[in-house]
Amino acid sequence: MELKQLYREIVNEHNLHPVHKKTIENPDIVLRGVNPSCGDDITLSLKLDGDVITDGGYEGSGCAISQASVDMMVDQIIGKKKDEAIKLAGTFMGMIKGEITDEESIEALDEAAALQDVAHMPARVKCAVLGWKTMQQMLEGEGE
Q1: φ and ψ of 143, to 5 deg
Q2: How far are the Cα atoms of 2, 4, 39, 42 from residue 131, in angstroms, in the given order?
Q3: ∠ CA 101-105-107 to the nearest 5 degrees?
Q4: Which residues, listed in sequence order, are joined to residue 64 by a DSSP beta bridge?
Q5: Cα–chain-centroid distance for residue 139?
Q6: Can you give the pTM of this predicted structure?
Q7: Which of 31, 55, 121, 140 sits at a 20 to 30 Å CA gap from 43?
Q8: Residue 68 structural domain
Q9: Phi/psi at 55 (nearest 5 deg)?
């Protein structure tokens, strides 16, 4: 199977059958992320146990890329420490902007690496990074 086809299938799967599109009971931090230019609108909720993200979910609507990206992101950050999640967000945004291209860094993103092609679609960059940016703002706002 061609890599681009595989990537498309991963994105479609996360968009059509999101694992983390759900309400989180008593979340520790909640932040809404909006992309006014295209109407993507998510509310991200995370549960923390000290420094570790123990659960996460999101609600909202938007294009396939924004929804799939936030679903993959929540997948990636559950079980991670806050600083690890922030670092992953930096890697993801670097990949999307075409600044990070080495395979080792991108591999750390697991399925989210499927969005690497978005780097060649400037109009979709905001969609892909919405969830990651929202999560990064939440965790950095939490203080250390």
Answers
A1: 80, 170
A2: 27, 22, 13, 7
A3: 100
A4: none
A5: 13
A6: 0.93
A7: 121
A8: 3-141
A9: -160, 160
How many domains does the chain fold into?
1
Note the pLDDT tens digit of each residue in 61-103. 999 999 999 999 999 999 999 999 999 999 999 999 999 999 9
Q: Which tens digits make up the pLDDT trace of 17-69?
A: 999 999 999 999 999 999 988 899 999 999 999 999 999 999 999 999 999 99
Alpha-carbon gap, residue 138 to 80, rounded angstroms:
15
Q: Return the structure tokens found at 130.
A: 């919405």
Closest Cα partner for 19 from 62, 72, 61? Answer: 72
Q: What is the CATH number of the domain that holds 17?
A: 3.90.1010.10
Amino acid in position 95: M
3-state secondary structure the chain: CCHHHHHHHHHHHHHHCCCCECCCCCCCEEEEEEECCCCEEEEEEEEEECCEEEEEEEEEECCHHHHHHHHHHHHHHCCCEHHHHHHHHHHHHHHHCCCCCCHHHHHCCHHHHHHHHHHHCHHHHHHHHHHHHHHHHHHHHCCC
